[in-house]
DNA sequence: CATCCCCATC
């Protein structure tokens, strides 16, 4: 009973564990209670390992223990554990227990093995609506909408969860018309039904419809708020996300994680760190988890100095957060962006499994640190491991070619993106313009800009302007600066650049005109490329 | 008293 009051999950597991071992001879009923308790608290790994320990003692598991253990295996995708418990289900004679059989079919349904799930379902002597719902969610997850619809029609006593599954299935498939129809038809709706509709609208890009639905709700829970915040985050609308977040009455861990991630993903690293600071204040105090730190590390890497990180690192130690591959990958990015390429490499080699994100972070790190040949080597290694590159990988690779001044290779690389079905983003164009321009191919760079499939931004024009300054090209410089001024409110840097071009080619009057009221020093940044350049007027 | 639906990761 004391257990339910403990909010720190690690402590909960510890308590449960020690209580069990304080009993002289815990019977299988006690074991079952603790396993069920852990599973309900979301401590699935702990629940499974406790079940394994109980099995080793040759205790006869209760139906509670076995169904909770199966649920835990399903949640953490523990195939091996799930299948071995399946074997025990027969051994201990739970073939007719509806709870155990349902947990079993749900396990296979969650693993995506619909044949076995269906087999378990067909063999069941007794089925509850939960059994039907488990199989239904499996069909929906597999994208089998027709089969799901058909199966849904056969459910004898549909409850709100059956309806919710169908609504969310159609919403996830992008079929909002059908989702709306079902939502209208539902005999009763709970918060999950409304939240599924919000998710659907956001996924198909209708944030306005999502907000209308959200505003029309008479009651909302954390999931409703978090879904909206994440939706605004995806659309880059940090202000709207923050407004909602500030209106929340009871902010939990996930709300903070969503808002911190929103800031970290939308280039607001300072705000992300401020929020992290807020959640640790004694009057709020919310215990951060690995996901909090994943975003916080990303925020640190955007700030580009290791000072913030050393503070974060000690907080991580305070909370007993252990580095996993995800966090280590975020750290690789941090170290690389701060110039500690050796530390980045060390972490990279310590990873259990190097995935697309890890490779991309490392390639980018080599790129911005002038290690072009390392970046290329990593890229080839990645391809050899059959990992398909994405847009981020190419940002790193093109950055590497850019730093090395390898124009031809860089151009080939840019053109090879389509071989992987990738369409270059505006950042990739920005790097290419910079690469061509620095090498003196100003006309080619200008041609690339005019042929871009999207509207060029200030970064792209800025890169051309910078190249014009390097090679003192007045005509293109004037064009570039006009576009920059149109696109950016702070234009002092652009103007001083053009002014210095005029000065170099002897157009002193024009130079003077540009320079009036202009600060001598400015920083121009090319997006997708991490270098910054200090420029001084003559 | 268990089992199913909605939210967050570089």
From TrEMBL:
UniProt xrefs under InterPro entries: E_motif, PPR_At4g14850-like_plant, PPR_rpt, TPR-like_helical_dom_sf
Say yes or no: keyword GTP-binding present: no
Reply yes or no: does the keyword Signal apply.
no
For biological process, the GO terms are:
RNA modification
Keywords of the record, alphabetical order, are:
Endonuclease, Hydrolase, Nuclease, Repeat
**Molecular-function annotations in GO:** endonuclease activity; RNA binding
What is the protein named?
Structure-specific endonuclease subunit SLX1
- Highest taxon of source: Eukaryota
Where are this protein's PPR repeats?
27-61, 128-158, 159-193, 221-251, 252-286, 355-389, 390-424
Q: Which SUPFAM superfamilies match?
A: TPR-like
Q: Which Pfam families match?
A: E_motif (PF20431), PPR (PF01535), PPR_2 (PF13041)
